[in-house]
């Protein structure tokens, strides 16, 4: 009896779906369907990068991993997927040789009060020896990274100071969110540190202390291996971490860019 009911229910559902499809045949339903499909691919890509399913949070139009890394559901999956190049520690997908020369940052009006901190963060990345990676501020579109203020959710007892996206399709991660309220009482150096750290994600760096943080396995940047207590890319250190790029951070940047 139950089985029959189930069968009837399934038949009814199928009929409904068909009806829905027919109904929408004329309307432009392609885009949302593609988005759904792409979201599945993005989810698989995140898992292929080595992040356990338990660390992935579905947040509407994006997935959030390890509190501060964002994957838009409509992102372009890097050619070759996660690959085996996941290597101080990065995702394996870096900013292209042309785009790295000028990564344009647009400061949302909600973040202009921290322009000095943003400029300080940019100066650190731009000052890495033997690297041609350069960030610049632009005041109009087009731009590569939007940095904006947002009250970021966090589990009880935790504070999320910032979030950022990894590169995709040869472009830098397109979004940095800073929880201005959370860092407002920090020192200037620590506020700039949070911003500098998030830009580091935009150019593919993972957390140097991923293992201690209980995060998924990351691979070394070729030639720059191991843990580094001085790394600005150590995670979970908002208002307590390194405020300047360590020698290894610089070596890793030079190796990739
Ligand atoms: Zn981080």
Automatic annotation (TrEMBL):
Keyword Zinc found: no
Record keywords: Signal
Record InterPro entries: MetalloPept_cat_dom_sf, Peptidase_M10/M27/M57
GO MF assignments: metallopeptidase activity
Keyword Signal: yes
Signal peptide (UniProt feature, chain positions): 1-19
Domain of life: Bacteria
Protein's name according to its UniProt entry: Dual-action HEIGH metallo-peptidase
Originating species: Pedobacter miscanthi
């Amino acid at each position: 009896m139950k089985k029959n009911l189930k069968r009837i229910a399934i038949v009814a559902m199928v009929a409904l779906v068909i009806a829905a499809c027919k109904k929408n045949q004329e309307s432009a339903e392609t885009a949302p369907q593609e988005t759904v499909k792409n979201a599945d691919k993005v989810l698989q890509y995140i898992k292929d990068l080595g992040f356990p399913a338990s660390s992935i949070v579905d947040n509407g139009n994006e997935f959030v991993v390890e509190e501060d890394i964002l994957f838009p559901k409509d992102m372009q999956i890097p050619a070759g997927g996660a690959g085996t190049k996941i290597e101080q520690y990065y995702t394996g997908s870096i900013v292209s040789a042309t785009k790295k020369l000028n990564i344009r940052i647009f400061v949302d009006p909600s973040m202009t009060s921290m322009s000095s901190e943003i400029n300080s963060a940019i100066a650190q990345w731009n000052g890495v020896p033997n690297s041609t990676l350069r960030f610049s501020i632009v005041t109009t579109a087009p731009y590569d990274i939007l940095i904006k203020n947002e009250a970021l959710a966090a589990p009880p007892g935790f504070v999320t100071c910032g979030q950022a996206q990894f590169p995709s399709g040869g472009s830098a991660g397109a979004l940095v969110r800073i929880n201005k309220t959370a860092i407002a009482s920090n020192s200037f150096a620590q506020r700039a540190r949070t911003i500098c750290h998030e830009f580091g994600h935009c150019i593919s760096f993972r957390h140097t202390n991923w293992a201690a943080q209980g995060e998924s396995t990351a691979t070394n940047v070729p030639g720059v291996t191991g843990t580094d207590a001085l790394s600005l890319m150590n995670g979970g250190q908002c208002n307590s971490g390194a405020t300047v790029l360590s020698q290894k951070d610089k070596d890793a940047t030079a190796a990739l860019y």
